[in-house]
Input
Amino acid sequence: MQVPRTIHRLDIRDTPLGTLSENWLHLISNGIGEPVRVPIIVARGRHDGPVLGLTAAVHGNELNGIPIIHRLMGALELGALRGTVVGVLAMNVPGVLSGQRTFNDNEDLNHIAPGRKDGNASQVYLHRLLDRVVQQFNFLIDLHTASFGRVNSYYIRADMDHPVASRMARLQNPQIIVHNPPNDKTVRGAAAALGIPAITAELRDPHRFQEDVVEAGVVGIRNVMADLGMAEAEVLCPLQETLLCSDSYWLYTDEGGLLEVFPEVGDCITRGQVVAEVRTIFGQVIRTYTAPEDGVVIGRSVNPINQTGSRILHLGREPRAIPCLVDDPSEDRPQ
Output
């Protein structure tokens, strides 16, 4: 077992061809001067090729991306690999250690990109992550889950008008893809601004490792690697059809009380269908919610304690089934 080395900036060339290295990236220091270090695995193939970046746990309670990186790295054949896979196992180290979504100054790292080199703690931390790690990627898959009190389907957010990001999204074999241009302050948006094709993978539920979606995530990443020419492998099609949504939005309550949401993730619902009820603490129904339009349930609340303005469900609009990429004659592999 190798001893991870401490670095202050990732340089892929420091990992010899055909080897794997484990690294602690010292980004900032805490209030008593101890280093805050980000764990990074670099798998560099024996042959030149693109750099695929995998980032996990930007939100500290979203953990399924960590075993996905472990599983993928453990199965790589470095002698045949063309290019490099970089796995950032925990983007938000303070959040992971405290079991919370946000950074230790209560900022959401996925809402402040690209950060600031002269900003507060979270802004400096994220700026250095992007500058010292992410900008070296040629492609990025950012691994997320739902957050506290909610569950997700396995879905992808991507700019489906971008030919490379679109292919990456479809190759994940998710249940659902949401067309979502990266015009926000997310890590994906910051990568796109650097010219890096990027997608966000939402891998079900928070605060746990879920074997089924971990395996699905590994298959999706290996599909991308095969499509990019990084690995000799067959692209695997999904067992169930993928639904592509034109966009999506959340439904919210306008009454506080005990919330019960009826549809499950992945369910297709119709306009006017009852999707939730709110009851008083004494059990009386005081509010019923219906679907405003046809759509598919991408995610939903599982927390019955509902203050006015809480989330009900995440609705994907205009869902339509799309074929597996390898079976779609309208798609040609980029040269």
Notes: DSSP finds six helices and 20 strands in the chain. The domain at 5-227 is CATH 3.40.630.10 (Aminopeptidase). The chain has two domains: 5-227, 244-321.
